[in-house]
Amino acid sequence: MSIEFRKEYFADERDDNLNEVGKPTQRQDALGHVTGRSPYFDDHLFDGLLHIRCVRSPHHHARIRRIDTSEAERMPGVVRIITGKDVPHNLNTLLSLLDFGLDDEPLLSDKKVAYKGEPVAAVVAETERAARDAVAKVRVDWEELPAVFDVEEAVKPGAPVVNEVYPKNLFVYHGRYDHQKLRYGDVEAGFRQADRIIEGRYQMSPIEQAPTETCGAIAAPETNDRYVVYTSTQALFFSLDTTSKLLKTPSNRLHFIGGTVGGGFGGKVDSLHEPMAVLGTMLTGRPCKYIFDREEEMQVGAPRGAERWYLKDGVMNDGRIVARKFVGYFDSGAYTRLSSYAIIKGVGHLPGPYTIPNVYADVYCVFTNRTPATAMRGFGITGVDFAIEAHMDKVAHEVGIDPIELRILNAYRDGDMKAHRRLAKNTALIECCQVAAEKAKWPISQAASQASSLRDGGGERGRLPAHTATDQNGLVTGFTAQSYAKKSRATQPSATPPPQMARHESAPVTPRVEQPRPQPVQPASAPPPPPAATEQRHTRFSSISGLRRR
Amino acid sequence: MAKKPVQFRLNGSEKAVFVDDGQNLLDVLRRGVGDLTPKYGCGQGTCGTCTVLIDGEPHLSCLTLAETIDGRQVSTTAGLARGSELHPLQAAFMDGFAAQCGYCTPGMLMAASALLERNPDPSREDIVEAISGNICRCTGYEPIINAILAAAKAGGARRYG
Amino acid sequence: MPVKVETYDRVEEAARALSASRSARFLGGGTLVMRAVNAGDQSFDTIIRLRDPDFRTIRMQGDGLVIGAGVTMAALVANRDAAFLATVARVIGGPAIRNMATVGGNLFASGNYGDLAVALLALGATVQLAGSGSRSMPIDEFLRDRDRDRHATSLVQSVTVPRPRDPAAFRFTKVSRVKPKGVSLMSIAALLPQSGGRVQGARVAYGAMGPTPLRAIAVERALEGQALDAAAIDRAAALAVEGIAPPTDALASSWYRAEVAGVHLKRLLAGERR
């Protein structure tokens, strides 16, 4: 395998005397893989293993009037039937482990279901077939409710309430707003100044990670009053702590073994299987396996969520983008899982790798009666990048500029201020565009091919906007922020921003741009720095923030 | 539930197990005789990760009624290596980074070994066809195809057991 | 209820056992029945298995080919007399599926499966049922009644296929989302015998365009008696979904199928290789 190093770019930033980096290395798990001996979770055999299968909702949205398990309990091979009342703490949200968001999702629903396939009972049986046969005999008395599947329909007044914890079908950010805000400069002023306004609407459907190994876990009683758990999880301690919370069991009684995963792509972080398997073991005293079959993996397993984006650009006739406004909707499905966090991540990324002096975003995490969404490869960024880049092509077409040159013209450069108020460093969009154009034999102008991320950045472009327009739109009441982020802020003395993460503390390479110390930006001939800089600062660096209901 | 005796050869050695009615071969191999190399991916015949050879031809063990293998020969990835000496396909998969998560690998190896037994000098198209019933989600098919080509060059048809 | 397996050595015995129970299924290669067992299908509790070697043979009978219902797709591909069907059998599944899936089973495949049955329908095959109700019927009739449960208790013993005199008169195409192999978004088979430069006895069949493989009657009528020229092909393609209501499934919407059916039909009729 050969790797192409482009020595002409950033040559002084790379140390080529490395022992491992840049050289092919045998994977340490390769021998296990080719001999079929790598130990996936299901490759652990237990005598007397029991099998768990869930009773699932055939409806997208329904109230549960009654669950009758009596006939199922009498089926041959059935050892135990589990319902919501058997789960010690039957309400959770994954990010509660980071003190972010409210518990909103039961392990086994007992009042209502909000997506098709939501589990309401689990059968523990001697064989998988016996479990399936008994599942077919559980009678649920459903009261079907109107369902909503579109993010913009779900936020209209009078829409069915999907998730009772968030009655407006919107996640609440920072205890204050029904959306995540980004305000940088004055986007309306930018639009007035622009030669033209170019708008676009972009959306993407949910995407299933579709790992070849389906999600699952096996739990078994261990000595010392512990439970051993073999799991396909991608997030071992996440799963461990979620199990500990749902089962009200100290984590030192849980012995989790993972690490060998048959494909994940983000779809194996939701920690649904481990608590169920351990609960089955607690209730029966026997080893229990809970695994999705392929149909469940596709229907019930959480996908990358759907997104819809509205983009509005203020563009000068020469192609410079002077204002960009986003309104985004993430379809979280019925419960929060990781969508609220995906938005925080996505908004930090706006307006993409471009330097635009006025940026605005309102991004909503919306609950609908669809399968809850979760992580998948760059989630939070991928969807909006698709929207941004499709929109860049549209802008290029409408302004009549080569699409690659438009990107180079607007690209961020070292020393530029980004909308999340950090200076850009180690930027390389311009060079990526140049290499892409070269490889595609796509002609670009001499000016574009001579542009550099190292030049013409900073200065004027490195200053915060003179004025940032703010608002209280989407203010909500009844929620309060009491988060990890806020607590840590409270312990910060005054307005000093938290120390930045030193990415390469021992690396021989220094970043091309030093982050400014917290002193105010030097006013030059440019408009003065914003007087409200400290006002801004208290939300600047919180990447995650939580909320609690009063 | 009635149990039925089934005798078959697995990678050259005689096996005798009792199977349940309706039980599939994948389950019998994994839980009945403890050969964990074939994997469950779908139970539907879509993914190919449970592929084994029955009398030398690739079959999906998850769709094979276990009792139908009575008296037949079953080969799995567990039988590819001879002691610590890897089969040329295994060596080529290692050298060519053809196994990322490794979950589809046993099925790929069985599909590829059936091909090389029949056709020691396959074209790229032959290989694509031979693994067309095997889904890979992370390695990507190119390294796998290249590894099978490399194994063929290295004499991948030599049979063990 | 756990599944019970009954194994028989003679077709008549298997047919009798099958007809005696509405909750029994006949096991061909397992690609349909074992899939249903794995999914916990509650509609049957008995699997009927047959070990008769005759069930897996292919033989010539006059102008036709008698194919045992237990013949696999791989066996069909390997049989010289069945060369005209090899192009169809070869695009069904990967090698493992073809080593298992049977001709008889394909007649019962639904949804995006059952490509061979589409070809057999275009070729005007007849289906032989075993047992006390032993009889032969046109495949059209068999498929029409298949899902009305009339054959759930009948054992298909063999299929007799008239071999096309001119091999070029039979054409087949399969449209998939996945290359090189995927299930059918639609498949189209056409038998277009020509006499004096004009089509006589056209039979055109679709797969995945309805609950069972079905004939495109309007297309057949448009082609009948015509020279297979661009104008005739255009007229036929315009009628591609006349009288047909294509289904919506995970692969495509009804609208999409209706939109593209004419395009694929036109390519097939014009003999364009894709």
Automatic annotation (TrEMBL), chain B:
Any Pfam family hit: Fer2
Annotated 2Fe-2S ferredoxin-type domain residues: 4-80
Keywords: 2Fe-2S, Iron, Iron-sulfur, Metal-binding, Oxidoreductase
Highest rank taxon of the organism: Bacteria
CDD domains: fer2 (cd00207)
Name used for this protein in its record: (2Fe-2S)-binding protein
Upper taxonomic lineage: Bacteria, Pseudomonadati, Pseudomonadota, Alphaproteobacteria, Hyphomicrobiales
